[in-house]
Amino acid sequence: MLLKLNNIFKWVQSGGQRIFLLKDINMEVHEGEFISVMGPSGSGKSTLLNVIGMLDNFDEGAYHFLDESVHNLKEKHRARMYKEYIGFVFQSYHLLDDLTVQENLEMPLLYKKYKSSERKAMVADMLDRFNIVGKKDLFPVQLSGGQQQLVGVARALISNPKLILADEPTGNLNSLQSEEIMDLFKQLNNDGVTIIQVTHSEKNASYGSRIINLLDGRRV
Q: Which residues pair with 34 in a beta bridge?
């Protein structure tokens, strides 16, 4: 078992009332799964992903990741787990504009105390794997949307995460670029990486092994 959510609630207070973002969510994810989270806008998909990715706290319930009780961890320890085991791919790429492709890829490795020579080798390997060697000295603004997203995926992968979380990873891409990214995810999943993606697209969801549907913060 990679992770388990038990009776997770998350809410915000508004005008003396609780507005629920997540209501009583239970789910188990096993290593090697490829899960698609679907539902209308505002159904809690991104919130769920952020809770799983330890970027968001929750108000009630229990979350276990690799047998650690995430809900009991201190912030620092949680951040360390996130950096150690989780790779995030965002719809808006989240690349750092003032860093080159090469430097963007190196960022996650700086947290992990790799030697400079190891970092260079790992970055070179990723550039090669994603066919972006020729782009290594360019800045994000000089790349197309598809290329930026490839760099985003490469950056999520470079430190060999156990889990990839992808929030609408093809939302800004044309159909050809979308297919490239999804084929890449499929390949990674075949190699044993666990993937949870949030998507509106039936086609993207079909790449996964199962679908979790959300409505108004609940599983349906």
A: 195
Q: In terms of DSSP H, where are the helices of the chain?
A: 45-52, 75-85, 101-110, 116-129, 145-157, 175-190, 202-205
pLDDT of 155-164, one tens digit each?
A: 998 988 999 9
Place of tokens 């992990």: 112
Global confidence as pTM: 0.91
Residues whose CB is less than 8 angstroms from the CB of residue 154 and which lie 6 or more positions away in sequence, other chains included: 105, 126, 127, 129, 130, 132
Structural domain boundaries enclosing 40: 33-54+73-219
Count, residues in the chain: 220
pLDDT 10s digits, 30-64: 999 999 999 999 999 999 999 999 999 999 999 99
CA distances from 220 to 4, 151, 205, 211 (A): 18, 34, 16, 11
3-state class of 162 per DSSP? coil
Amino acid letter for position 116: S
CATH for 98: 3.40.50.300
The reply to whether 163 falls in a domain is yes
Please state the domain count of the chain.
Answer: 1
